[in-house]
From TrEMBL:
Record's keyword annotation contains Cytoplasm: yes
Keywords: Cytoplasm, Repeat, WD repeat
Database matches in Pfam families: WD40
Family matches, as SMART domains: WD40
Name of the protein in its database record: Protein LST8 homolog
WD repeats: 1-18, 73-114, 206-237, 251-292
CDD domains referenced in this protein's UniProt entry, alphabetically: WD40
GO cellular component, one term: TORC2 complex
Chief location: cytoplasm
One BP annotation, GO: regulation of cellular component size
InterPro entries: MLST8, WD40/YVTN_repeat-like_dom_sf, WD40_PAC1, WD40_repeat_CS, WD40_repeat_dom_sf, WD40_rpt
Length: 310
């Protein structure tokens, strides 16, 4: 499977899709099991799918036809809001509305560490250096967690107590973008820890949407920022050399809230998931929908795409 495209829904199902034909190739129906699918992540080697399902995280083997997970991680006490893999697939990080961030050892299937954030966590990402995590929360904070020293080493509160919904970091680690509940985006230049400059240097902020922002995501080539919103649109922002963000195009087609998005490895395509029950594949150059994925019976709230080298 050179292209792995997966969606999750409030209908409790996880669906794998053939990206170009739009055909659903596999459904993990999870019969007899409750809990909506909140977030999805594909391991760098394309072997595993992590699915945040209510309070737990199921790890599925992508090549296996079995609907049973390899392992379930159960320790969070409320909705799991984010999942992310370590670059070598050795560990997984999860974040939850219970106010904690947890690191799980995938080799031993055990809980390795718990960070107490103190407020419901909405998103967490792994820094490209694999030594730090960056999270955002319902209390309006963005935090950097140092995995070596086991501490929160930096904290940002760009808009007071307005909840931060989503964070994204450039592949080279030099740019951080955060989006909040009021549709605002904040941008920082990330300086080297060894420089005399501040770690996070605020460079700009802008109003991306007039309504609730659900996801912000920097493209792998760092040329674009995609923002998803309750206003049913996805906006594509072109990033200039001086961190200036210019609206490039608005992707229109979804009928209801857009919850999640994922870029192709070459940044030429974007997948989105919406409350209108569908996912869409967009061509970045034209801004057109080139494929729709129909099969979910309720809101499609998360998607994951891995079409790069494993």
């Amino acid at each position: 499977m050179s292209v792995i495209l997966v969606t999750g829904s409030y209908d409790h199902e996880i669906r794998f899709w053939e990206a170009w034909s739009g055909i659903c190739s596999r459904t993990i129906s999870r019969t007899g099991e409750t809990g909506q699918v909140n977030r999805l992540a594909i391991s760098p080697d394309k072997r595993l799918l992590a699915a945040a399902i209510h309070k737990k995280v199921n790890i599925y083997e992508i090549a296996s036809p079995s609907n049973e997970p390899l392992v379930s991680f159960e320790s969070h006490t409320m909705n799991v809001s984010a999942v992310a893999f370590h670059s070598e697939g050795k560990w997984l990080v999860t974040a939850s509305e219970d106010g904690t961030i947890k690191i799980w050892d995938l080799r031993t299937s055990t809980l390795h560490r718990t960070y107490d954030n103190g407020a419901p966590v909405n998103d967490v990402i792994v820094h490209p250096n694999q030594g730090e995590l960056i999270s955002c929360d319902q209390a309006g904070s963005i935090k950097q967690w140092d995995l070596t020293d086991n501490i929160c080493s930096h904290e940002l509160t760009p808009a007071g107590d307005v909840p931060i919904r989503s964070v994204s970091l450039a592949v080279d680690g030099t740019c951080l973008v955060a989006g909040n509940n009021k549709g605002q985006c904040y941008v920082w230049k990330v300086n080297d820890e060894n420089s005399n400059l501040p770690r996070f240097q605020a460079v700009t902020r802008f109003q991306a949407h007039s309504k609730y922002l659900t996801r912000c995501l920097l493209s792998p080539d760092a040329r674009y920022l995609a923002t998803c919103s309750a206003d049913t649109s996805v906006k594509i922002w072109l990033i200039g050399p001086n961190y200036d963000f210019r609206l490039d195009r608005v992707l229109v087609g979804h009928q209801r809230w857009v919850w999640d998005c994922a870029f192709s490895a070459d940044s030429a395509y974007l997948v989105t998931a919406s409350s209108d029950h569908t996912a869409r594949l967009w061509e970045m150059a034209s801004g057109e929908t080139v494929r729709q994925y129909k099969g979910h019976h309720k809101a499609a709230v998360c998607c994951a795409l891995h079409d790069g080298a494993s």
